[in-house]
């Protein structure tokens, strides 16, 4: 299902269910989803009655009704992944909507404050330097005064300033809407404007699941974040990943060889230790025999002397 605008049928049920499950759609909100998809409440009540205490089953049956077009198709449109993503976004699940394939031309779905953790984690995963939170805030449309107010907070962790900045952006303060409404593409554009092109391209690849908007070019080290930078060559991120994978595989092979050699060395040392213990045992046993023989001879000599002494006394 390459195009989210393609019309879905009942044959796509497993695909749709899997798409929602893999992207963490909360199954217990199936009834809300059904209503958003314009399935009537009586039909949803029947679904619930037929699947008591089974939210997963309820979600599946709800999607069956939708894919079978058990609603006013002429009024609300045919079932597509784009329509599903729009509904999921309306439920306040913008991050899920992004993942299941909503498109609005090249822009992507609108983000909300409920998507704060998703956006924050995404930036951390692609190694965006949190020290750049002020330039990012300005590029996203926040005012200097707003950023100064955030800066005035006595946060011990620099990441907290970044989180607060993103929170204000997602709540659309200041001139955010004048720049562009909060979307992942908006974030990527802002990152490029502050010299974080490698980060922006990687988010497009990772979070938006798009082909890169432009070829990856060498990025000046001063303008790039840790973990990115000039090693992103024109061949693109895929080549970088392949090279890293090759290096890791080579490293794993070397480590395995070293581990095997170490195990062999340990086996040899254990064998030598076993031999030494046996030799020590035999040596000790031999010494014990000699000592016992000496002791027996001494006892015999004492007995003879005692006998002579008794004879002399008599």
TrEMBL record:
<protein>
    <recommendedName>
        <fullName>Death domain-containing protein</fullName>
    </recommendedName>
</protein>
<feature type="coiled-coil region">
    <location>
        <begin position="252"/>
        <end position="308"/>
    </location>
</feature>
<dbReference type="InterPro" id="IPR000488">
    <property type="entry name" value="Death_dom"/>
</dbReference>
<feature type="domain" description="Death">
    <location>
        <begin position="29"/>
        <end position="104"/>
    </location>
</feature>
<dbReference type="InterPro" id="IPR011029">
    <property type="entry name" value="DEATH-like_dom_sf"/>
</dbReference>
<keyword id="KW-0175">Coiled coil</keyword>
<feature type="domain" description="Death">
    <location>
        <begin position="132"/>
        <end position="207"/>
    </location>
</feature>
<dbReference type="GO" id="GO:0007165">
    <property type="term" value="P:signal transduction"/>
</dbReference>
<dbReference type="Pfam" id="PF00531">
    <property type="entry name" value="Death"/>
</dbReference>
């Amino acid at each position: 299902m390459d195009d989210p605008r393609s019309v879905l049928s009942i044959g796509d049920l497993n695909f749709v269910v899997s798409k929602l499950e893999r992207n963490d759609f909360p199954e217990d909100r199936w009834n809300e989803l059904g209503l958003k998809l314009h399935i009537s409440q009586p039909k949803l009540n029947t679904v619930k009655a037929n699947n008591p205490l089974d939210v997963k089953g309820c979600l599946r049956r709800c999607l069956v009704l939708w894919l079978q077009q058990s609603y006013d198709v002429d009024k609300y449109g045919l079932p597509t992944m784009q329509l599903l993503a729009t509904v999921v976004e309306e439920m306040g699940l913008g991050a899920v909507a992004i993942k299941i394939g909503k498109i609005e031309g090249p822009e992507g779905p609108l983000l909300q404050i409920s998507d704060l953790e998703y956006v924050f984690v995404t930036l951390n995963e692609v190694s965006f330097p949190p020290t750049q939170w002020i330039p990012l805030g300005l590029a996203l449309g926040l005012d200097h005064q707003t950023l100064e107010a955030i800066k005035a907070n006595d946060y011990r962790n620099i990441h907290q300033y970044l989180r607060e900045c993103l929170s204000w952006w997602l709540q659309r303060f200041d001139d955010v809407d004048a720049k562009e409404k909060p979307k992942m593409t908006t974030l990527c554009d802002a990152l490029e404007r502050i010299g974080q092109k490698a980060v922006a391209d990687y988010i497009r690849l990772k979070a938006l699941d798009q082909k890169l908007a432009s070829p990856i070019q060498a990025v000046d080290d001063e303008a790039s974040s840790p973990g990115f930078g000039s090693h992103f060559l024109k061949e693109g991120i895929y080549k970088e990943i392949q090279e890293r994978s090759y290096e890791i595989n080579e490293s794993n092979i070397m480590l395995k060889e070293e581990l095997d050699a170490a195990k062999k060395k340990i086996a040899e040392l254990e064998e030598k230790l076993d031999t030494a213990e046996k030799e020590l045992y035999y040596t000790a046993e031999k010494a014990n025999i000699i000592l016992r023989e000496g002791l027996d001879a001494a006892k015999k000599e004492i007995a003879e002397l005692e006998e002579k002494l008794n004879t002399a006394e008599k």
